[in-house]
Request: fold
Amino acid sequence: MYPRKNVYANWYAHAVAVTAQFGLLEGYEDGMYGPDRLVTRKELAVILSRVVDWIAGRDAIDVTSIINGYRDGYETSIWAKESIARMSGLGVFQGDDSQSLRPLELVTRAETAVLLIRMLRQISLIGPS
Reply:
């Protein structure tokens, strides 16, 4: 039932199993979930993109032109490019003042809250405030 070998008896095991069942969260290639690891912006983009796809469906996007529109788009891993482009296209990820996405940086709880609110507004689960 639990998809990763370092999750079984922990307080978050059920949450990991349910999110994995719906394809929202996955572990790493080595079979570990990494529960104590911090999340990068590109990893969060993948998670948020999966939530949007699950709730609202998937629209076609021009990944290359969106990613290339950012100064540091080249730093985005292949596995995260479509998700970052999707979240950017929806206005969830907006880049900073220097037109950088900072995909390799860790995301703070404050940034996570802002990104979640933007995502929830885009898929009409909450209204503007």
